[in-house]
Design brief:
Layout lengths: L1 H6 L2 H9 L5 H19 L2 E4 L1 H16 L10 E5 L26 H8 L3 E6 L33 H8 L5 E6 L5 H7 L2 E4 L19 E6 L2 H11 L29 E5 L11 H16 L3 E5 L7 H16 L17 H12 L2 H14 L5 H21 L5 E5 L15 H5 L6 H6 L3 E8 L5 E8 L4 H15 L12
Parallel strand pairs: 2-3, 2-4, 7-8, 7-9
Antiparallel strand pairs: 1-3, 4-6, 5-6, 5-10, 9-11, 10-11
Helix pairs in contact: 3-4, 10-12, 10-13
Length: about 500
């Protein structure tokens, strides 16, 4: 019974624990066994947490016995390694944080645990969240459970691979420019980037503070909505968190697409690098599914979406340059080398940071340097504002915008590591919503001719998560893609 529950949706597993059909402690042991197999098979986990999981599962069983209603009772949870979990390592995939253990839980983790989740381990990620393939982590790449020669996407690829492989039914990642949505698409999952500020950032290792958001990775839209509901709400420890009660994400989940207006992004077909033919076909098919479900579907334009990649790689790298300056071997980070302060800084950062992180720090430092700040960072921020205006104008004609999540299915390991620009273009459809602070959902819509998952993205206005999730649920029901199971699933 437990094995079947781990294969299925998180909300069904939670119902079984609440009803007393299975104990959270039994589920935790089964999930720990599966997580160990996934760690070996795909490199999805960096560290397992049996002591934490057993203690949390025992607490869930006590709370259930006392009659406490827990929406996520006993649900095993995987946490990306740039999100703090008390007592566990947080390395953000970087050698410069080797040996660091968190003193407390990130707000999003604490809220999920309060809702009944059980943390079974920390998952691999691209170093400091910088990557689109999960090949940039200090402890090696993650392999996609659908095809171990392919990437799982990044930077939350470990979390995505863990859920896709059926090790856990739920995981959380962070999304700065697409790092939840893109791996969700490449691994056949639902991934949500909420409205900026919807989920507090306390306990997240900062990459780009005006962009970073935690979000859920799940196998069904309902599970993603449950997790996001638990994670959302204001937090006095994060001044950027949205005030007021978050919207109800569950009551309207089955409302369908009837009466809603969906804009099909006109710029998608002409995106730089082009669309893979299977993705293009799935894009058209998804628009047809929404039309058949009762939505009014028509083309819509966001003219400056083509500028999103260069804008993002100026804004994000500039913020990374500022945020990562604290890792110097003195204030934070593993200390390397001897000699004067300058030599200590050089040694600590040279040995601690990987190549992609160094590249982005250099780009950001240049963009912020005297004489170049206005020409690069300042101009990028202005274009960012114009992009947000483009979205606002587009939403006068529609309630949500449909576009691919990724321009292609999962690509082979190593195929883009020598070409940073090609790698950056993997985020061409996810970066725009991040820059504008808008919510977006990636939902699986089927498989490519090679048997690899394809995801489509729905982007909405700030605060429109209920509408996006209802549309995603309509797509999920019509496509049947939630039933697809990867060959690399563990048991």
């Amino acid at each position: 019974m437990i094995e079947g529950l781990l294969d299925g949706p998180a909300h069904e597993l939670a119902a079984a624990v609440r009803d007393g059909r299975v104990r959270a402690a039994e589920v935790a042991e089964a999930a720990l066994r599966r997580a160990a197999k996934a760690k070996e098979a795909h490199g999805s986990f960096l560290v397992l947490s049996p002591e934490t999981a057993r203690a949390q599962a025992a607490d869930v069983d006590r709370r259930i016995a006392s009659g406490e209603p827990l929406p996520l009772a006993g649900v095993p949870l995987a946490v990306k390694d740039n999100i703090n979990v008390a007592g566990l390592p947080t390395t953000a995939g970087s050698r410069i944080l080797a040996g660091f253990a968190s003193a407390d839980d990130a707000t999003c983790v604490a809220r999920l645990v309060a809702g009944g989740c059980v943390v079974v381990g920390k998952t691999s990620c691209d170093e400091f969240g910088m990557g689109s393939s999960n090949e940039n982590g200090a402890w090696g790449p993650v392999r996609n459970p659908w095809d171990p020669t392919r990437v799982p996407g990044g930077s939350s690829g470990g979390s995505a691979a863990a859920v896709a492989a059926r090790a856990v039914p739920l995981a959380i990642g962070t999304d700065t420019g697409g790092s939840v949505r893109q791996p969700a698409a490449l691994c056949g999952l639902v991934g949500v980037k909420p409205t900026y500020g919807r989920v507090p950032r306390y306990g997240l290792v900062a990459f780009a503070s005006s962009l970073d958001q935690a979000g859920p990775l799940a196998r069904t839209v309902r599970d993603a909505a449950l997790a996001l509901s638990a994670m959302s709400g204001p937090d006095p420890r994060d001044s950027t968190s949205l005030q007021g009660a978050p919207p109800d994400l569950l009551s309207g989940l089955e409302r369908g697409a009837e009466g809603l207006r969906v804009g099909v992004l006109a710029e998608a077909e002409g995106a730089e690098g082009g669309l893979h033919r299977d993705v293009a076909a799935a894009f058209r098919r998804t628009a047809d599914l929404l039309r058949a479900a009762g939505a009014a579907v028509a083309p819509v334009s966001v003219p400056r979406v083509a500028l999103a990649i260069p804008v993002y790689y100026l804004v994000a790298t500039a913020e990374a340059s500022s945020n990562l300056s604290r890792f110097d071997g003195v204030r934070y980070g593993a200390r390397q080398g001897e000699g004067d302060l300058g030599e200590l800084y050089r040694a600590s950062r040279s040995r601690g940071f990987g190549p992609e992180v160094k590249r982005r720090i250099l780009l950001g430092t240049f963009a912020l340097s005297a004489g170049y700040h206005d020409a690069y960072y300042g101009r990028a921020q202005k274009v960012r504002g114009l992009l947000a205006r483009d979205f606002s104008e587009a939403f006068l004609a529609c309630d949500a915008i449909l576009c691919p999540t990724s321009p292609e299915p999962a690509f082979p390991l190593g195929s883009k590591t020598g070409d940073p620009l090609s790698m950056y273009l993997a985020d061409v459809f996810t970066v725009p919503a991040s820059l504008a602070g808008l919510p977006a959902v990636s939902v699986p819509v089927g498989l490519s001719s090679e048997g690899l998952p394809i995801g489509m993205q729905l982007v909405g206005t700030a605060g429109s998560e209920p509408t996006l999730l209802a549309l995603a649920r309509a797509v999920e029901k019509a496509s049947g893609a939630a039933a697809d199971r990867p060959p690399g699933a563990v048991r």
